[in-house]
Amino acid sequence: MNETRDLVQRAIAALWDSASSLGTDEKAHAELAGLVDAVADVEAQLAGLRLFLLHEARLTGADAVIAEAKQSVRTTAAQATSALKLSQDLAERFPLIGAALNDSVVSLAQAEAIVAGLKKLPHRLTRTEMEQCQRSILEHAQDLGPSELRVLASRLAEVVDPEQAEADEAKRLEAEERAAHRNRFLRLAPDHHGSVRITGQLSVSDAALLTAQLDALMPPASSYSDTGEIPTRDMRRADALVLLTQTAANAGTLPQRGCDRPTVHVIMSLDTLKGGLGRTGLFSLDEVDAISAKEARRLACDADLIPIVLGSESQPLDVGRKSRTFPSAIRAALIERDKGCAFPNCNVPAAGCEAHHIVPYVKGLGPSSLANGVLLCPYHHRVVEPADWPLTSNDWEVRLDEVTGLPWFTPPKHIDPSRRPRQHSRFVLEQITLEPPPEAPPCPDPVEAPSVPEVQLVAARPSADREQERARLEQIRGNPSPAWAGAG
Fold first, then answer.
1. What integer pLDDT is reported at residue 53 of this predicted model?
2. 52-66, 186-200, 352-366: segment of lowest average pLDDT
């Protein structure tokens, strides 16, 4: 054991030596990037090894090891419990994800997200179908982050059984809504230092109503200039809650926000509206946290609600008015399309974003229309806003894809000399279409191990190195890590 520890320490010391000897030229920058990637790979492999060891401790009855993991001061009790549960899931239910983690194909955060999404799939899936889902999700591990992988994993039932997927989704959403209503609470507890701590839990639909009212009342940051305070968004939302209670106490109604009353936007297909099956989304909420069509109709009975029925004309998407600011219908369409700040890797929700003219309005060139707009948070709005027109290679360039209508961002040359366009990962996720596998021949004798048909996940814009990653994945499947080879 001491020899193993010494070997690990020598490897870490070698990494420190490499980091300490780096220079400052471009070659050193390339070495630094390679070193960061190497440490990330090792970090994933060590995380996989630790989870494997925890599972071995459980199987062999090493209670002292489990107790030490739970009581360790290096983690919280919740983190320790989560790690133990994840170790069991990877070994017994999702061995391909465990092998990918151990071989650094995915990070620990990605593995946790994938497992969380896969556990939302129907329990009726067979072991072979679940393996098929694992292979499918791993093909996109190099392109999607944890949040997007969680969403994609939860949608894989569409691949193995497309006909039953919608019915299963409707049942799951209704069950979650019943559980959310059953588990709702609001607690106010004084901290005995002049404040009251507010904690609670609401259903997705009820929380959307509350969020819409708070966003309508949230004071702008400029309103705090006289006090010299620089409030965070959470502080401004707390002030909005106080304003909400004061307004309700004084008048019983809420004020208007510009020309619009506070509204909740509900997105559903025309078939969902008519038939009652399928996913219904709410603006500013994660796609997994959707509501059923039944719940959407309930909201419509007694709420300021804008239905955006995709494929219908219930809400105009592009009126093209020549106004300096974006009309409410166009802003609603921007929110539905961009879901929040469209700048790559930014996750500011739509409520905290501004509509940006791709071609500046002040030059008399760009209309306030869907085809000339993009949602950006205030920070990235300032980053992208050009100092002059036309653009130069020193400016960020925003353009909308001719096929998908989704925004792309081209960095200035001082950030990326090659000026390669970038896109938010949420748009990459949207462009992934799930396709059922081709018809497989009849299953052979059950004694033999049947081959699992490949599932094709087609991305609208595959990365250039997709074939290399696929070959690497095939190598992993054919030569699993020794640590996970016997798991499950």
1. 94
2. 352-366
305-310 and 264-269 strand pairing:
parallel
How far the first Cα of the chain sits from its last, in Å, is: 26
**Per-residue pLDDT tens over the stretch 147-156:** 999 988 888 8
DSSP per position, 201-219: E--HHHHHHHHHHHHHHPP
Q: Which of 97, 180, 105, 111 is nearest to 149 (CA)?
A: 111
Cα–Cα distance between 281 and 421 in angstroms, integer? 29
405 - beta bridge partners? Answer: none
Residues forming a β-bridge with 356? 374
Q: Give the residue carrying structure tokens 């739509």.
A: 350
Q: How many CA within 13 A on the CB side of residue 315?
A: 22
Q: Please give the pLDDT value at position 85.
A: 95
Q: For the segment 211-234, what is each residue's pLDDT rounded down to a tens digit?
A: 888 888 888 887 777 667 788 989
Is the pLDDT assigned to residue 36 strictly greater than 60?
A: yes
- pLDDT above 60 (res 71): yes
**Contact call for residues 217 and 240 (beta carbons, < 8 A):** yes
Closest Cα to residue 389, out of 420, 367, 408, 362? Answer: 362
Integer CA distances (angstroms), 106 to 103, 138, 145, 303, 307, in order: 8, 8, 10, 43, 39
Q: Which two tokens stand for residue 377?
A: 């948070």
CB 146 within 8 A of CB 110: yes
pLDDT value for 436 = 66
In this structure, the strands spanning 373-376 and 407-410 are unpaired
Closest to 308 (Cα-Cα) out of 329, 284, 339:
329
Q: What is the DSSP letter of 226?
A: G
Name the residue with higher pLDDT: 61 or 220.
Answer: 61
What is the arithmetic mean of pLDDT over 48-58? 94
Cβ-based burial of 31 (10 A; exposed 0-12, middle 13-18, buried ≥19): middle
**DSSP assigned state of 260:** B
| Angle 35-40-45 from CA coordinates, rounded to 5° | 125
